[in-house]
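One-letter codes give the sequence; the fold follows as tokens. An example follows:
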Amino acid sequence: MTDTPTQLFIGGAWVDAADGATLPVDDPATGEILCHVADAGPKDAKLAEEAAVQAQHEWARTAPRVRSEILRRAYEIILERTDELAHLMTSEMGKPLAEARGEVAYAAEFFRWFSEEAVRIDGGLATLPDGRNRMLLSRRPVGPCLLITPWNFPLAMGTRKIGPAVAAGCTMVLKPAPQTPLSSLALAAILKEAGLPDGVLNVVTTSRAGEVCEPLLRGGRIRKLSFTGSTAVGQLLLAQSAEAVVRTSMELGGNAPFIVFEDADLDKAVDGAMAAKMRNMGEACTAANRFFVHRSVAQEFGRRLAERMGALVVGPGTRDGVDVGPLIDRRGRAKVEELVADAVERGAQVLEGGRTPEGPGCFYPPTVLADVDPGSRLMDTEIFGPVAAILTFDDEDEVIRRANDTPWGLVGYVFTEGLDRALRVSERLEVGMVGLNTGLVSNPAAPFGGVKQSGLGREGGRVGIDEFLEYQYLAVPVN
């Protein structure tokens, strides 16, 4: 921990908060304080904004190949420091080291992907239909951006936003979640080492998000907001962005249905359930939330899933052999406890887990509930914990209706061996992404995002850079 920056990163320099404030960073496995980092206030945010605005003109004019090579160097540095970054992430967030190492590789890949996209920004030339003018289209960076990242994937959510912004030629103010600021500060140090010019990326860690972000969004100099987090906070930020007509992309909450038809390969379905539910201890917007299983296979699916969940080892993420680390904090664990208790009171059968262990840390056991009442609170709440809630269904139209009966629409999972049904159901689900016979959809080369209240825009893939670019149309008379 001694080598990890703990100050704000503004204009290429490490600085304390203007008022000297700090905030603690806790280890969720023990509840102990790891360290303190600078706690930015409005004055620090304005300094970071000023640094980004001042750097924007020159950065936008930087050759795409230069931007590409900076990202490529940062990608290589991240991979070289996989163990160091994984331990840092596990310490502040709790996930097991094996998962943390996986996130490091996932995070690095966004930099490699967008290093390649940086040199493929193109425009167009065409004669307009009336023959009077030529249309010259060019693409240019949208301008200074505010990037707000969550705590559950502290490194990957940073690279997923920073990568396309750097590639497009945008400067940035990054505000990471207060629970996990260290991964973002380490990332800033890596980018500086990779040659990113001063002021292009500025990082403000803060416990005062409203005081820091609202003035930036209303001030008119930030031209783009990219946010990953809850739908409620996203709605607030959208309202704040409206005054200055800030361009927004929002990756918000999810309530993913996981549908198992009677013809599904149950081995595949259980493997997919483990991936879709237990990645990151269930603390993921893509986590399977509602397990709809055909009545004819529900008992066997529940038995197999409970057996697999019960075999997982719970403990500190740094300990060898641990599969499931702690939840992020006591408030997060209390929410899971309340949701499970409500379901059980309504008649749900506990097949596995369901009881909070004694001792320090924010641990909760992998839990499987069967015969869940559709009116249970966890049916319309993002659980963000290791709880699989199983409901039964009898026919296709019924399950599609129930799966779509939610304001969210990020991802859905479908398990069936019938090609016609697979395509038909996938097309009818009101989601931005579908995992067909797989429990893992996230990939830097694929567009990530949802519909309805799960967000606006897409991150990753060939379209990910579009969120940070504007078109300019130049009319040229035909002589």
User: Anything to note?
Assistant: The radius of gyration is 23 Å. The chain has a mean pLDDT of 97.
